[in-house]
Amino acid sequence: MKIGLDxxxxxxxxxxxxxxxxxxxxxxxxFPDDHFLVxxxxxxxxxxxxxxxxxxxxxxxxxxxxxxxxxxIGRIASSHHxxxxxxxxxxxxxxxxxxxxxxxxxxxTLKYPQLRPSRLQWLIYRFVFxxxxxxSRFLVAISKSTGRDLYNYYGFADSVxxxxxxxxxxxxxxxxxxxxxxxxxxxxxxxxxxxxxxxSPKKNLEVVLxxxxxxxxxxxxxxxxxxxxRGYGSEFFFELVEELGLEGQVIExxxxxxxxxxxxxxxxxxxxxPSIYEGFGLPVVEAMACGSPVLVSDVGPxxxxxxxxxxxxxxxxxxxxxxGIRRALTDPSYRERMQIYxxxxxxxxxxxxxxxxxxxxxxxxxxxxxx
Length: 371
Description:
Mean pLDDT: 92
CATH architecture of the largest domain: 3-Layer(aba) Sandwich
Strand order of the largest sheet: 3-2-1-4-5-6-7
CATH topology of the largest domain: Rossmann fold
Low-confidence stretches: none
CATH superfamily of the largest domain: Glycogen Phosphorylase B
Largest sheet: 7 strands, parallel
Order of helices and strands: EHEEHEEHHEHEEHEHEHEHEHEHHH
Distance between the termini: 17 Å
Helix content: 40-55%
Shape: globular
Structural class: alpha/beta
CATH class of the largest domain: Alpha Beta
Number of strands: 13
């Protein structure tokens, strides 16, 4: 089978970038008898294989560029005689002569427009996006929660397939030997709280700050380590840090290496993820794979990922977050139990399984198109 893969966002240091890189590299490795045309911004040595052709195309940035890219996909698919094309990051594909499979990461712009900077984005998701998705043979949702959103907002059901993200168990684990000196530059206290992600209003870290202030008043000071980049609307978070007098209890690391990230997960007293909305929640699985207890919101796909009710808390329940943090940091038996549970839970998610499920969807799309 000749399979086209959209890798236009594989360079991004975000969940979309991780998803693209992992899916492409696992498909290439697991299915050597297939031929892959990878549309990519620059040559990637890791994707250099006998069954791969890399089609170099500049990165896509902006609405106009996305539309232009969508039309170009049709020409690329036609000239390379593809059997199926997979849009990994929501980009449109017009006049494509083969069946198209399209990923839908989330519908946050539609569900929570107040969390986005542009009303134009909401208008596109409300009126344009469903039209574009109808051009796809199958839609890949990365969680059951996103699958439900596709039905509730757009009415898509029969064409939706749920394929969970995986986790890189070679990187995120408890067994690999790593030098703890890598973390020396961060000067971290023991038993810190940890968050990983693009800091924005939908991440809802304010509830953790308020829980920290409550715990400090109860003589249990804590430190929050924020790993990632500041995003749109993050200024409110730092205003609240000052308002609550927590300046000395919040540490920003910025982006870190994978080794540093693994160590940060391992050393954390608790990984917190109070997000209002996610498509999946990849850092949660990474944290569990590294043996960190987790406390996450009880909304969206997060209950699907962790399942155990003791790891869940309502995103607006300050008292609940304070209670969960206190328990994780002061009850050794609970911490040990959650470490074991989380490690076993994370083992259920793998990129190998995701790639195999996607390959099955490609075959189904091709078979359907042939009647």
